[in-house]
Amino acid sequence: MSLRSCRWLSLTLVLTVGAGCQQGELRGPSVPELDCSGCLEALPINGWCSACQHGLVAGLVIPSLQFHQILDAHGHDVEIDTLQCGMCLIVAPEDEFCTRCRNGFVAGQLYFSELTWSLALGVQDGSGGDCSGCKLVVGEVGQCRSCGTPWVGSVRFDSKEAAARAAQQYRRLVEALTRLECCEECAIAGFFGARCRTCHRDPIPDPLN
Questions:
Q1: Could you tell me the pTM of the whole model?
Q2: Which of 5, 31, 118, 171 is most open to solvent, judged by the fewest CB atoms within 10 Å of its CB?
Q3: CA pseudo-torsion sign 24, 26, 191, 106
Q4: Each residue's pLDDT tens digit, 64-78
């Protein structure tokens, strides 16, 4: 079974088993205030902090393990020559996104969503580096007033175009986390373009400006 098939199988199982309104709480400090060693280790790899029982994606706290796993916010090794999609074969060497398969590629790795692909085009830097202006904007969506560096959460970009695309997906994730406060299915289904069977809310628009 392919990586993508496994991912969608996991999504289907979550929506089947996890149907119903489940309470969630968006908890945790902003990026510059992280003082947990597990969070600091998880931040640059969009990982999971076992101590705090939450994940981090671009500095956003993901309190649902299922949602965090399905976001799958890291790359997967792939043999480009083995790809079955003609468009993927074209875009993969250019680190671009396949709108047909919804796969993205960065440095020879495969990403399963526009969110994870767009974030991979930047650099995780939760500290803000040596720039005092960047330290003020890290953890938000914006541009450093001192050096002009675009930021999307804890990710900095060289390209304003890449940052703008990542910002659209980041805002969709923020909306999903808002839905997660009431209904886990709403968050997961909405983010991945499906209607919630429990709350009957529409998918989160893509792009969300």
A1: 0.83
A2: 5
A3: negative
A4: 999 999 999 999 999
How far apart, in whole angstroms, are the C-alpha atoms of residue 16 and residue 2? Answer: 21
Closest C-alpha to 68, from 151, 184, 175: 184
The residue with tokens 């088993």 is: 17
What CA–CA distances, in Å, run from 126 to 62, 95, 157, 182? 16, 24, 13, 29
Write down the residue that tokens 């953890």 correspond to: 139
Residue 133's contacts (CB-CB under 8 Å, 6 or more residues apart) are 144, 145, 146, 147
Q: CA 184, CA 63: separation in Å to the nearest integer?
A: 10
**Amino acid identity at 157:** F
pLDDT tens per residue across span 95-147: 999 999 999 999 999 999 999 999 999 999 988 889 999 999 999 999 999 99
Where residue 200 falls (left for φ over 0; alpha for ψ -120 to 50; beta otherwise) is left
The length of the chain is: 209
